[in-house]
Amino acid sequence: MKRLLTGTLLCLTLGQVAAVMEPTEKNAIAMAERGAAFIKEHGKDEMIRKINAKDPDFLQGELYVDMRDIHSGIVLAHPINPSIVGKDLTDVPDVSGKRYRREIIELAQKKGRGWVDYMYKNPLNGKIEPKTTYILRVGDVVLEAGIYKK
Predict the structure, then answer these.
(1) What does the pLDDT look like over 75-116, one tens digit per residue?
(2) Theoretical Cys-Cys bridge with 118: which of 16, 28, 55, 100, CB 3.0 to 4.6 Å?
(3) Are 61 and 67 in contact (CB under 8 A)?
(4) Would you give the DSSP letter of residue 84?
(5) Closest of 16, 38, 40, 43 to residue 27, by C-alpha
(6) pLDDT tens digits, residue range 14-59?
């Protein structure tokens, strides 16, 4: 009985680790929606603090939420790359030349939510990889939570 319980716990633990290491589109949507609910309850400024402080609710391995102003494109919070906070990178392309940040803002303004594909540096391995990001408009900000395509 003890061996069965230990084996079950080990499988559950490994399953949780795999889920954190390999986030899904569903995980990205859930994280962005969790961020939207937090903003509605606590306000945009508190969400900025949580993201920049690398709160584990909004940073889990390679899955994280960042936030930008929907009108100016200025990055308001980013847990992985704080050097871009306060900057407007709207028209800076990815390595393939795609101005994906412009696409994020336009999609958020028109539809309020959706997916944008581009190339970005994976924080776990430092490589530029294909990424898809779920964007969610919350008032005058855009929350972004993306996953790397394997």
Answers:
(1) 999 999 999 999 999 999 999 999 999 999 999 999 999 999
(2) 100
(3) no
(4) G
(5) 16
(6) 444 444 468 999 999 999 999 999 999 999 999 999 999 999 999 9
Token pair of 134, please?
């779920």
Which has the minimum average pLDDT: 17-26, 97-106, 122-131, 137-146?
A: 17-26
Q: Which among 23, 69, 78 has a CA at the least distance from the CA of 44?
A: 69
The DSSP result for 96-145, as a single string, is TS--HHHHHHHHHHHTSEEEEEEEEE-TTT--EEEEEEEEEEETTEEEEE
Q: Where are the beta strands (DSSP E) in 11-112?
A: 59-60, 63-69, 75-77
Q: Which residues of 61-80 are buried (b: 16+ CB within 10 A; e: fewer)?
A: ebbbbbbbebeebbbbbbbe
